[in-house]
């Protein structure tokens, strides 16, 4: 009877998560290895990865645990966070996410696993949602052109400073910031300003611009509206005075307040910035949240970040796309004024849908309720003898309590409410959508006041003056009026998501972007209240679960990369680049080497590298790329010699942007170090290194990592992301810090990179969970299978398309580049034709024309199983046969399935006058009619969209369903 017994100890282990994350099983791996010509994963990576960089030892990480065990650990961590009523304010507020949006956007892989909408034909749902967001922001700010979101309010304000300097008439002078601006915003601006030589002056502007400042010249002014203290004042005279000095005026405005208050645009502002967090996006201990920027029309083409515009498709139908200039850091590189290469798309979609669901009347009601609570709270405090510093406010009060601030804050906390201690004599209190009568009573009690809500409500007037009340209409477009019922909203969200292509449909084989599994277990904790509803400036002892999670994640990322210290504050890869370069700059200056400002960057590098270097006050010197795709070592040596005394840093991507492990990387690093420089290893391609090699051990001094790539935070349609920065010990004193949270970074740090102390902390449980589920061995195998999958695709496609770059063993790293240029020359079929034809086959295209024009860069990741890898390879081979038919003349060069791709369902109707059949168009080999993905539009005319930039409301006919 015991012969068939399975020991309980084995049964208790459960199914390892590694088997869920890694697509190919053991049998599939064997087939793939045979195709590539190796007997095991270890044999393959031994041949692919240069000996000089290989890890000598296994990763020192806790062993892998099951999904159930890790969720239990997370529950324990969450239990150590204390959720109190968030009445701290400072730009972060309690909000109620409508469940239909929570479930069907934030928790829906159709939205969160999508890639950036660079292939607009299969991103129409997301682009329409972003256009809703832009329309919402433009309407509420009273400015005609809004971007598709920025990273947070602090960085948006810093971007406004750069924009003001670029477009304004005053080319010198200072950037003037009102003293009643959010403190974290001021700090981020100062961090950004110092390396570029901009002088920031913070002054009390309540009585106007001081004459001594005006005499120095002012190129830009930033005003908070309402102020950080809660004050609401008429800022039009101040804006007019600033314009009289030739300054560009930015207003950092609260969108909820703008449903009641006159808009910045009507007051004369040039730029408006802020956050949309309180539009249904959880606080998440600081992020991710969608920042916003809106500008006057004349500045539209200088807008940083992304901008959704309206173009036409091949049939002349309206279609959405990203406007070209919104990738300026790739085009302008070291001439770019911003390194922003992402938006906060998922959060912008949520905020926009919050406005769609509530409409203008609903938003105004939420704002009026919020203000009403603040007015009643103020009346009660005043009646009880508490002095308020401002008599006109929207949602925030500042009380003067001489010497009693600590006692008041402590008493409120005991009653379950967090207030903000401004200083020993002042306490600030903010109301929001979640404030109720219970919170008012608790706050009154904390101040030693007793009051009655009903009596005060009957006797208290609102605190907003008639002259500042908004009278113009906003959110007039039908989309903000059509979806009041949950049924209507649910169907609208489904209709939009059906127009898109995300990982829940199939493989997204984008090189350099690592579109891998975002496991449900990793995603689930993000929306738990204990993680989602913590204010970023809550007392640190209320966030001990977060502190432990952050500390453990930083330590584990340090172990994976070989660095000594990691900061997770940067809330995008671009911001991680900036943080790392600022650390290098500060290190050289601390050593008395302020002349070291030259940054060497290979010509193949990501565009953000050059833009980040300029923002960090460095001079970019480009290093050539050799024929084999590696850094041209001879040119590098010549540049090191030429700039030896000024050399600050070399920025390289490893494995290279061309998808190969460079043999000479350790030598390159050593030569830079010998010349007194530092080495920055861009972590974009870390998915090829984890468990195999550590940048901090083969010569890197600093790297940023992309948690939305290697460590499973989803791309969310173009954001959120986290870009931690890892450094060796000598750079650790210069990591980011934060003025409102001393434990977030070193006292000697360069200042904050993002508005919140730990950046987008709300999504860090995803990466923590991934590392905990996989363990060191699992992470290594994931890397090995990623390398295997890329080489499998390269070997299968090589007889049909040239593979552009390989290493000494004829192997690639985690991605490969197929060269289409000979085919284009011979047949006229372009990289665009192939990318769009892939849509007909049910695929998102690989990365087009980067880093080499006329190529496709393919990265399969470890999460795609063999069936999907083969489906992709079979499709590319079938497309190669189609190209041959064009080349042979069987299909005309201007009328074939590639040139006309993608084909919509509508294109099949009526008369068919093409040289190929309907079935060839829409049901090519391997495509099932039952499972067909139908693109909503045909190929979009990008040139038309750039000539005719339209970025306001969605067209009315878009809603004729």
Automatic annotation (TrEMBL):
GO terms for cellular component: cytosol; glycine cleavage complex. InterPro entries: GcvP, GDC-P_C, GDC-P_N, GDC_P, PyrdxlP-dep_Trfase, PyrdxlP-dep_Trfase_major, PyrdxlP-dep_Trfase_small. One of its GO terms (molecular function) is glycine dehydrogenase (decarboxylating) activity. Its EC number is 1.4.4.2. Residues 626-653 form a coiled coil. CDD domains: GDC-P. Its cofactor is pyridoxal 5'-phosphate. It catalyses: N(6)-[(R)-lipoyl]-L-lysyl-[glycine-cleavage complex H protein] + glycine + H(+) = N(6)-[(R)-S(8)-aminomethyldihydrolipoyl]-L-lysyl-[glycine-cleavage complex H protein] + CO2. Residues 782-903 form the Glycine dehydrogenase C-terminal domain. The modification N6-(pyridoxal phosphate)lysine is found at residue 709. The glycine cleavage system catalyzes the degradation of glycine. The P protein binds the alpha-amino group of glycine through its pyridoxal phosphate cofactor; CO(2) is released and the remaining methylamine moiety is then transferred to the lipoamide cofactor of the H protein. This is Glycine dehydrogenase (decarboxylating). The gene is gcvP.
């Amino acid at each position: 009877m015991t012969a068939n017994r399975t020991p309980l100890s084995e049964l208790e282990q459960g199914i390892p998560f590694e088997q869920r994350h890694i697509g190919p099983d053991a049998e599939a791996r064997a087939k793939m290895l045979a195709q590539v010509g190796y007997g095991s994963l270890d044999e393959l990576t031994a041949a692919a990865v240069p000996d000089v960089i290989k890890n000598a030892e296994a990763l020192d990480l806790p062993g892998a645990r099951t999904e159930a065990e890790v969720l239990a650990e997370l529950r324990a961590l969450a239990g150590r966070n204390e959720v109190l009523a968030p009445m701290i304010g400072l730009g972060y507020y309690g909000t109620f996410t409508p469940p239909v949006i929570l479930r069907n956007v934030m928790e829906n892989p159709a939205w969160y696993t999508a890639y950036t909408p660079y292939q607009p034909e299969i991103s129409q749902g997301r682009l329409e949602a972003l256009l809703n967001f832009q329309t919402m922001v433009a309407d509420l700010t009273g400015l005609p052109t809004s971007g598709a979101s920025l990273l947070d309010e602090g960085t948006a304000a810093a971007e406004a400073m750069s924009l003001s300097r670029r477009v304004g008439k005053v080319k010198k002078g200072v950037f003037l910031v009102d003293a009643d601006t959010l403190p974290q915003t001021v700090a981020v601006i100062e961090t950004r300003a110092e390396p570029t030589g901009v002088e920031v002056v913070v002054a009390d502007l309540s009585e106007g611009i001081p004459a001594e400042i005006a005499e120095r010249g002012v190129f830009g002014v930033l005003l908070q509206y309402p102020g950080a203290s809660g004050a609401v004042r008429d800022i039009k005279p101040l804006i007019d005075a600033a314009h009289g000095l030739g300054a560009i005026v930015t207003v950092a405005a609260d969108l909820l307040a703008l449903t009641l208050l006159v808009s910045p645009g009507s007051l004369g502002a040039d730029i408006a910035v802020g956050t949309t967090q309180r539009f249904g996006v959880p606080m998440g201990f600081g992020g991710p949240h969608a920042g916003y920027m809106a500008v006057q029309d004349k500045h539209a083409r200088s807008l940083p970040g992304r901008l959704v515009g309206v173009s036409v498709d091949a049939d002349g139908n309206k279609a959405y796309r990203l406007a070209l200039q919104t990738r300026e850091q790739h085009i302008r590189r070291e001439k770019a004024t911003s390194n922003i290469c992402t938006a906060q798309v998922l959060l912008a979609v949520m905020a926009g849908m919050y406005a769609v669901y509530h409409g203008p009347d609903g938003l105004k009601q939420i704002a009026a309720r919020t203000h009403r609570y603040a007015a009643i709270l103020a009346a009660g405090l005043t009646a009880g003898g508490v002095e308020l510093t401002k008599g006109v406010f929207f949602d925030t009060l500042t009380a003067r309590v001489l010497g009693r601030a600590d006692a008041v804050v402590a008493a409120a906390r005991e009653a379950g409410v967090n207030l903000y201690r401004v200083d020993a004599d002042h306490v600030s209190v903010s109301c929001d959508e979640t404030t109720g009568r219970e919170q008012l009573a608790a706050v009154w009690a904390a101040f030693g006041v007793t009051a009655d809500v009903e009596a005060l409500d009957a006797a208290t007037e609102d605190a907003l003056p008639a002259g500042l009340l908004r009278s113009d209409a906003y959110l007039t477009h039908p989309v903000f009026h059509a979806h009041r019922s949950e049924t209507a909203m649910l169907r609208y969200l489904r209709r939009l998501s059906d127009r898109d292509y995300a990982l829940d449909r199939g493989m997204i084989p984008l090189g350099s972007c690592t579109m891998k599994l975002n496991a449900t277990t990793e995603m689930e904790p993000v929306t738990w209240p204990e993680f989602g509803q913590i204010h970023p400036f809550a007392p640190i002892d209320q966030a001990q679960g977060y502190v432990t999670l952050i500390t453990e994640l930083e330590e584990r990322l340090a172990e994976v990369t070989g660095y000594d210290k990691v900061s997770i504050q940067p809330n995008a890869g671009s911001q991680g680049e900036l943080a790392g370069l600022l650390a290098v700059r500060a290190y050289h200056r601390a050593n008395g080497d302020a002349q070291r400002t030259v940054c060497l960057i290979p010509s193949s590098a990501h565009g953000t590298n050059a833009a980040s270097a300029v923002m960090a006050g460095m001079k970019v010197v480009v290093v050539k790329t050799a024929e084999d795709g590696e850094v041209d070592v001879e040119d590098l040596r010549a540049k090191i010699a030429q700039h030896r005394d000024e050399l600050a840093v070399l920025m390289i991507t490893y494995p290279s942007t061309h998808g190969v492990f460079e043999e000479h990387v350790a030598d390159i690093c050593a030569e830079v170090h010998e010349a007194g420089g530092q080495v920055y290893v861009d972590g974009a391609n870390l998915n090829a290194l984890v468990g195999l090699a550590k940048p901090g051990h083969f010569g890197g001094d600093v790297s940023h990592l992309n948690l939305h790539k290697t460590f499973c935070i989803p791309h969310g349609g173009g954001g959120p992301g986290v870009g931690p920065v890892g450094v060796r010990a000598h750079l650790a004193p210069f990591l980011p810090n934060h003025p409102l949270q001393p434990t977030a970074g070193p006292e000697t740090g360069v200042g904050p990179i993002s508005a919140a102390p730990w950046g987008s902390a709300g999504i860090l449980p995803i990466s923590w969970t991934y590392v905990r589920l996989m363990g060191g061995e699992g992470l290594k195998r994931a890397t090995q299978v990623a390398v295997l999958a890329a080489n499998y695709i390269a070997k299968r496609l090589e007889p049909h398309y040239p593979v552009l770059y390989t290493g000494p063993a004829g192997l690639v790293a985690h991605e490969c580049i197929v060269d289409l240029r000979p085919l284009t020359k011979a047949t006229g079929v372009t990289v665009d034709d192939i990318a769009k034809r892939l849509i007909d086959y049910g695929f998102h295209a690989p990365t087009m024309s980067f880093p080499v024009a006329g190529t496709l860069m393919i990265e399969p990741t470890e999460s795609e199983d063999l069936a999907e890898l083969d489906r992709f390879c079979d499709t590319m081979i079938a497309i190669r046969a189609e190209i041959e038919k064009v080349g042979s003349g069987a299909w005309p060069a201007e009328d074939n399935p590639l040139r006309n791709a993608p084909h919509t369902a509508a294109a099949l109707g009526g008369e068919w006058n093409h040289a190929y059949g309907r079935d060839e168009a829409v049901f090519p080999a391997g495509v099932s009619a039952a499972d067909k993905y139908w693109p909503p539009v045909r190929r979009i005319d990008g040139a038309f969209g750039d000539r005719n930039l339209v970025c306001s409301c969605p067209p009315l006919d878009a809603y004729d369903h």
